[in-house]
Structures are given as C-alpha cells and as structure tokens.
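User: Second chain of the day. Same drill as before.
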Amino acid sequence: MRLTVNTLLSMDGVMQGPGGADEDPSNGFDRGGWLVPLAGEEMDHIVSGWFRQADALLLGRTTYEILQPYWEMVTDPCDEVADSLNHLPKYLVSSTLAEPSWHNTRVLDGDPVEAVARIKKHERGELQMHGSHQLAQALYEAGLVDEYRLLIFPVVVGAGKRLFQDSVPPSSFIVAGTHVTKSGLVALSLLPRPFRAAF
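Assistant: Same format as last time:
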C-alpha cells in the first residue's frame, strides 16, 4: 500500500490551523485561518482530487478531532471530501482515544510507525494522510512516505507547526506534478529520493 501525505502549506511551511482561527490553537498559535482569503473553487477541486485517490485514511488524534465534528454532518453524496471521510476506513493514531465514534475508525495499537509499516506491507491501494503534524514527521523520518501532495499558499505565517522541522534528516524529491491556480496557489506532487548535495 502506498502512503501519501496530503497537506495545505504556507510559503514558510506552516500546516497548522489553515481553515479557522480556533481550528488548532495548540502551543499558543493565534494565526489560524490563513488560507481563507485565498480559498476557492480551484482549491476545492484540487483537494477533492486528492480524496478521490484514497482507499483508506490515516489520521493523528488532533486532526481526527478537528475533522470529525464538521465532516460527519456533511451528508451530500456529491461532496467527495465528506464521502471519503465518512465512509472510507480510517486508521487513527492515538494513545488517549480508545473508542472513537466516527464510522469505520480503527485505533492503531502499539508503535504507530511499526503499525503503518504493517499496513503498507499487507494492504493495497493508497493510504492517505491529512494534517497530523507529529505523525507526518515520524513517518518521514522512518522513510515510509511514498508521495507528498502539497498545496502551497502565497502567505507567510511566521509561526506554527511545520511539515519539515529544522532537525529532520535531509531528502531530495522528484517533482511528479505541478499546477498553479489563478489565485496563485501552487500544487506539487513530490516523490522522495535520497538527498544529494554538491561537493
């Protein structure tokens, strides 16, 4: 099974709280909602296209608890994001949420990196992760991510959780796809490969 990381980023790599002021105020983050002025139909089309490729979803607890209250109430079968979130199998990484209430959710036991490695080995299709900052970093460091799909917004947030922190191991990427929207959003598809530097 392929593991893809799908996320919305500022130019300085922030992925925290893009959709609303109160979405994720952890660590004192007070700059939530930074994508809202740039959102639109093209963004929705790109994100819906991500979800169309998913066979199962992988979420950390914080992202899970942000998504569930809103998307569980969206019952329009034509909404591809809601349909995927509400019906596809969801793997949840959490040490505190033992009995999740969102339909078709399974909590992964034990070490999350080992659990995801087992899923990749024994299942087929695409395991798709959204948000989930800590989990994304752990899976990157373990070399388990097969593809990054990033939607980069022309804004600098200046603080917040970043997809790649300063301390992570280096990596290079093959650019497998690009698209620029009319409002200046940049969609990238990136395939990890070993880091190369000039000597």
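The longest strand covers residues 2-10.

User: Great, on to the next one.
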